[in-house]
Write a structure and sequence with these properties.
Its EC number is 2.7.7.59, 3.1.4.-. Keywords: Hydrolase, Magnesium, Multifunctional enzyme, Nucleotidyltransferase, Repeat, Transferase. This is Bifunctional uridylyltransferase/uridylyl-removing enzyme. The structure is a single chain. By secondary structure, this protein is of the alpha+beta class. The chain is about 55% helix and about 10% strand. The strands form four sheets. A four-stranded mixed β-sheet has the order 3-2-1-4, sandwiched between helices.
Length: about 950
Amino acid sequence: MATIDPLQNHLIDADQLRRDLTALTEASGHDGSSSDVRREVLAHLKATSKSARAKAEALLIEDGQGWECAHRLSRAQDDLIRVIYDFAVTHVFRVPNLSEGERMAVTAVGGYGRGSLAPGSDIDLLFVLPYKKTALVESIVEYILYMLWDMGFKVGHATRSVDDCIRLSREDMTIRTSILEARFLWGHEPLFEELVERFDKDIVAKTAPEFIAAKLAERDSRHEKVGRSRYMVEPNIKDGKGGQRDLHTLFWIAKYYYRLPTQIELKKAQVFSKAEFRRFTKAQDFLWAVRCHLHFLTGRAEERISFDLQPDLAARLGYQDHPGMSAVERFMKHYFLVAKDVGDLTRILCSKLEDEQAKQASSFTGVWNTLTGKRRQKKIKGTDQFLVVNNRITPIDDKVFKRDPNQILKIFRLAEENGFLFHPDAMHLLSRSSRLITKALRNDPEANADFLAVLTSRQTPERVLRKMNETGVLGRFIPDFGKIVAMMQFNMYHHFTVDEHLLRSIGILSEIEKGELGEEHPLANEIMGTFDHRVELYVALLMHDIAKGRPEDHSIAGAKVARKLCPRLGLDAAQTEFVAWLVEQHLVMSYVSQSRDLGDPKTISDFTTTVQSLDRLKALLVLTVCDIKAVGPGVWNGWKGQLLRTLYYESEPRLTGGFTAAPRKQRVLEMREQLSARLTDWEEAERKRVIGLHYDNYLLNTPLEHQVRHANFIRENDLNGNFFAINTIPHEFEAMTAIDILTADHPNLLSIITGCCASIGANIVDAQIFTMRDGRALDTILLSRGFDDPNDEKRRGDRIGDLIRQVLTGEIYMPEVMKRPAPLRRRVQAFSVPVEVTLDNTLSNQFTVLEVVCRDRAGLLSDLTGEITAMSLDIKSAHIATFGARVTDTFYITDLVGQKIENPTRIKKIRERLTSMLDQTPAVSTKKPRKKAVA
């Protein structure tokens, strides 16, 4: 780090600033109450503040010291407030000697009271009075506040007597917390000292358990709002789990319980060891650096580290690209490791408090019997190394793991088999003992058997594996897993870090195996009920993304890891090969189901050639469900489930040797019967008519609930004689909106629909396109949610429908609709996706398959379909797959006479024209598309 001149830490020369303001006043010939003088004083203060903040930013970039930057900004704010106070008393109200009843103490409270400020932080002030406010005191306070407001600061303030402060802090936990960190700024210091003394004696000394319980409940509530996981890839640095507020909560609790005046006392009072205190200060410094850079970069109090800001933050913090990991991914991995440290430190503090009998704070310990105040202990059958305290497992002493490192894995197995929670002491000791995991322990058969028992448990494997990860044991026992701990993937598709995604996928598999997701995943539940390869499936899920962040394709590299690791875990050669195949092919089923025409026999033939066996198919189906669902909220939907089931059922007969047309016809018949059974209130003739409108592909690829909705939609509009109709269905949980469109088929219909969506900024994330036997089209477009209110969403759908109707009837021309294309979404701009345009004639016996991979943007699908149509190509089916900022749009096309596009010159022109239209540097491939998807 650079060496900084200590004088630079003071960004403002307060004495010089006072002299400047005095000179301004004297030069004007008026006193400080003059509006002209106030205007000049305000301008000078603004300039001084702006200069100070520019210095603070430059120093932060130079030395990287976040905690010191926050101190510098706080000291600059202190100087400004003191100067304004002195100017008000001396030049505005001209009362250098306030009476006893008019004395006040200007006090910094809350975050500002800690002596640290981010550039966009609020300024929290408490004006402490001896008695009630006088007119003069009120005027001075108002002058100070209005000057600060006019300078552009957000100021939280209160004016209270010492008695009021004590009374209100008893009633209000927020006020109590703010006073806990009160810091004297200026004025009458004895008043401040009286407040501190009385607050400590009357409040802090008597209410520690109450305060601790309230703060931890408040923390849990905050996590619930911003996200329970600390591994969300766009974290909130202030309020998110593992963020600054958690670190503050940790210190508040320690300060309140141990009566510590400053952070350094945490080490002196042995609340933390030297090493733990270093982790505390490093975490604090890093989080402050990131937050200060974030505020400087955006010019506002931005607390969310969003994708579009992450590259700039990484550059400011000095991160650089490494093979397999970009600079931004390295920065975010550091962030998540720090967030993990914050969680570890919180757990350590809870353990300390528990040992010192903070028994009424049961909301965070769960150990003390609140009636007796005594520990309830019992032994565990089969071991004398651990005991249970109120259903929490803990070692009998702190030397257990040192005496026998095998006990490190044993404690997790015992916890899983018996449903024990982990005592904070156990978590603390496990974190400190992870270094005892050596090569010898990794190769120990007993240790590996214990680990495999946890991983494949029928109880709660995710819960125990998560604890194993939090303590660092999992990454030490499986070093390849350790490499992806806290690793984020810089894309909009994944919501969590790689390790969090893997653990969540195992949790989902466990739920499926227990039958808890039967309605959502019926086929996966059915498979797991009789599946012989459950162990291999659990192991494959743990490893399917374990090689992320390497230069080599992660699926291929992951298969190599599986072949090396599985024998160590006790799997035989056949099991090892099964796991390795699943890892290598874990993306193929999602890719084929979402990007290929499942009604095309060639699609099924190619897929089954890859899969080769029914057991592999079953395992791949379940793994794919878990993988997609673990990506994040709203990624899984009914369409994806139906597509996977269709691909499974189309492939199953080929893999069992029963390749005939019967199974497909049978399933189509069953789907017609199921739909018919749901339309019980219909006349028989009407039911047969509407069901008979659909081709087989529609029935096989559309969820039954959607079919029922469509049937009612068709009947209603047929009765009313509507040639065109739309139906908008907002889905709140998935943050998506579906729009059903029923109208006469038209060569440019898809282009018109997508263009109208693009013209109002509606982003299409998926589409189902079907033609009915009577020549009408039934299309369903899935849009990203535009409004929180479902009524607003309905109105947006109506606007899209009205535009489509006007274009189809000739009331308005498409070029007019597309005059002003919607702007590129801010978050998408952060990503670069190379363009790939491929035309392949081997993937279908009837059609040329055109695939476009590129970065998403508003109007993309409209531009693509319009350009394809303009080249005299006929789109027979379209398959839209959106993975965050990356889209894979696949079109089955022919020329206007229904033939494949086979002329090399024409193929080249199509590729070049589409690449040019996409307006990005092309990365055009002439090879077959890779059979994989982002997952």
